[in-house]
Design a protein that fits this description.
mainly alpha, globular, 5 helices, Arc Repressor Mutant, subunit A, single chain
């Protein structure tokens, strides 16, 4: 499968993630038949088309991944909190509450 096709499929999944829910990079990768493809999902999100809720993708621990010193991390947290997603004291989301399992 070519990179462009993989990215397109990532965006199709991302477009279906409901308001107030999150998915992990690994969940998307496994859904697309790439059990070790979480990084590929991350690469796709770096080039995410405008209008898609990229901020609804978190790491396997339910945390917002670092963006290498950019403002993306606090922005992502703010966007999720606006949707009603709550973080614990350690900065993690309870995936049993906010995780989207219908992927």
């Amino acid at each position: 499968m070519e990179e462009g096709d993989i990215f397109r499929r990532v965006y199709e999944v991302l477009a279906r993630v409901p308001y107030g829910k999150v998915v992990t990079y690994g969940q998307i990768a496994r859904h697309l038949g790439m059990p070790h493809g979480a990084r590929v999902v991350g690469w796709a999100l770096r080039q995410c088309p405008p209008g898609l809720p990229w901020y609804r993708v978190v790491n396997a621990q339910g945390a917002v991944s670092s963006r290498g010193g950019t403002l993306g991390e606090p922005y992502q947290r703010d966007m999720l909190e606006e949707e009603g997603v709550r973080f614990d004291e350690a900065g993690r989301i309870d995936l049993t509450i906010y995780g989207w399992d219908e992927i």
